[in-house]
Amino acid sequence: MATMTAAQRREQARVEYDAFLKSCPTNQLLDRISDKWVSLVVSALAPGPLRYSDLGRKIAGVSPKMLTQTLRSLERDGLLDRTVTPSVPVRVDYELTALGQNLALLLTAVKDWAETHFDEVREARERYDTEGADS
Amino acid sequence: MATMTAAQRREQARVEYDAFLKSCPTNQLLDRISDKWVSLVVSALAPGPLRYSDLGRKIAGVSPKMLTQTLRSLERDGLLDRTVTPSVPVRVDYELTALGQNLALLLTAVKDWAETHFDEVREARERYDTEGADS
DNA sequence: CTGGATCCCACAGGATACTG
DNA sequence: CAGTATCCTGTGGGATCCAG
């Protein structure tokens, strides 16, 4: 049957659209910086190199799994370097690459924007919440 | 007993950290633009106002639920205006506020960064994937 | 046409224990 | 110390039906 349900059409559109989004650099980067831990790790590393457990302590509340996972993906994308020193207790240092520093800059821009406009957003929220409450 | 298990300490740290993050404007904005649909809606609306169903069609693959949910949160944050025209079939238009346009600008900056550095990321990925494969 | 309400499931991500 | 493997839960988000 040539007729598709609305759900089927939407599903098809979604798949195509997802494929399109995946091929889009903007969206890929957006996915990167959207990740909660990515931004935290990059920020933590911005001042200088840190060891694995230092990161774990500095970020406070990250599970080893997510820390490793985040570090791996950032390393893969060439945003940070992983240096292993095979001493008696193994020592691993992580530091941002030039590209990583660059991303940190972008995060800073986001941060600046946030701080600049945060009051407006807060006011808008209060207005919105209030006008709904008093009826 | 005054002694806490490692899990308890981590849990406490996580709660405190979450509270800290919630109070941080940067993180709130990051949460905003991280949302997959938020960026798409803002981009779709950047050129000009659109109706509800136009948005649904332009974004292709969004469920009515997420579309509404996204629009509501953006409206609450004062990023877009919702205009209801009570004609026979109800008509609702959405358009970015000045603040919303501003956010669109930020997304554009992210986009520019992405397009500028995407090649480097892609190369880094290929390098990473290759060196792992040939052993 | 524009949504609200509900059910439901996949999957990201946290806790935990174990290994080089 | 620096992870890896496993399990398990929370929740984001899609499908579906209903209402103004």
Structure description:
The structure is a homodimer of 135-residue chains. The first copy, chain A, is mainly α. Chain A folds into 2 domains: 1-34, no CATH class; 36-134, Winged helix-like DNA-binding domain superfamily/Winged helix DNA-binding domain (Arc Repressor Mutant, subunit A), CATH 1.10.10. The first copy, chain A, contains 6 helices and 3 strands, in the order H-H-H-E-H-H-E-E-H. Chain A has helices at 6-22, 25-34, 36-45, 52-59, 64-76, 98-133, and strands at 50-51, 80-85, 91-96. In chain A, strands 1-3-2 form a 3-stranded antiparallel sheet. In chain A, strand 2 and strand 3 (91-96) form a beta hairpin. Chain A is extended, with a radius of gyration of 21 Å. The first copy, chain A, starts with 5 loop residues before the first helix and ends with a helix. Chains A, B: Residues 24-122 form the HTH hxlR-type domain. Chains A, B: This is HxlR family transcriptional regulator.
Overall pLDDT level of chain A: 87
What is the spatial order of strands in the main beta sheet of chain A?
1-3-2
Task: Give the ordered list of helices and strands of chain A.
Answer: HHHEHHEEH
| Low-confidence regions of chain A | none
Cα end-to-end separation of chain A: 51 Å
Strand content of chain A: 5-15%
The total number of structural domains of chain A is 2
Oligomer: homodimer
Gyration radius of chain A, in Å: 21 Å
**What is the CATH topology of the largest domain in chain A?**
Arc Repressor Mutant, subunit A
Q: Give the helix tally of chain A.
A: 6
Largest sheet of chain A: 3 strands, antiparallel
CATH class of the largest domain in chain A: Mainly Alpha
Instruction: Estimate the helix proportion of chain A, in percent.
Output: 55-70%
